[in-house]
Amino acid sequence: MIYIIIGHYGSGKTNFACNLAEKLSVDGSTAIVDLDIVNPYFRTADYTRELEAAGVKVIASDFQTSTLDIPSLTFDINALTGDFDNLIIDAGGDDEGAKVLGRYKNAFSDKPKTILYVVNFRRYLTRTAEDALEILREIEAVSGVRADTIVNNTNLAEETTAQTIIDSDNECQKLSNLSGIKNIITVIPENITLTVKNPFTVKIIVNKPWN
Fold first, then answer.
1. Which helix (H) or strand (E) holds 58?
2. What number of other Cβ atoms are within 10 A of residue 26's Cβ?
3. Does residue 211 sit within a domain?
4. Which of 13, 16, 135, 195 is most buried, taking the most CB atoms under 10 A from its CB?
5. Is the pTM of this model over 0.90?
6. What are the average pLDDT values for consecutive 10-residue runs of the chain, which has 211 residues?
7. Domain CATH for 137
8. Does residue 69 lie within any of the structural domains?
9. Number of domains in the chain
10. Number of Cβ atoms within 10 Å of the Cβ of 67
């Protein structure tokens, strides 16, 4: 199965992708592809040691683990799609980052896949369902893929409480209605106890670059 993770910068997309990779690696060979060659921060490749310790293969441009900021890929994504039980694609944020995904969409066209749109309703450009829908449509337009799952990753970093997540439910349901996407996953930090439908518990793998 191929899991393609899309979303706005700062949505927590990479942290979700890393957690998903670790969970999937328990049941089969799993790789995560860092397809974000636009944003120099919060890259999957920066957490290679932690992921590989969990049995996850990390695939990224050679430049992403160097001090050079060069927007290019040094691997053939077409050759990867049949090598693992689970392949996670961490795509670049927004429509600019998603252009890279669009370049390789044919590699996924005939394979089982799910497209997950990660949204944080506490980020300034996705505070409303309408804003989140606009960004989703922009990403879909340039990437050539259509999301089938909403990942409600509403959080305030270390200030996140159960109420933070509860308060996001109305906007998330509205986004579901506007987009026609019925499948919703709700991300719950591991230090918070909350009963929701389709929960996904995460630990903080991706830290702020200035920490």
1. strand 56-59
2. 9
3. no
4. 13
5. no
6. 91 93 94 74 72 90 47 52 84 74 76 94 95 95 93 94 97 98 97 94 71 41
7. 3.40.50.300
8. no
9. 1
10. 5
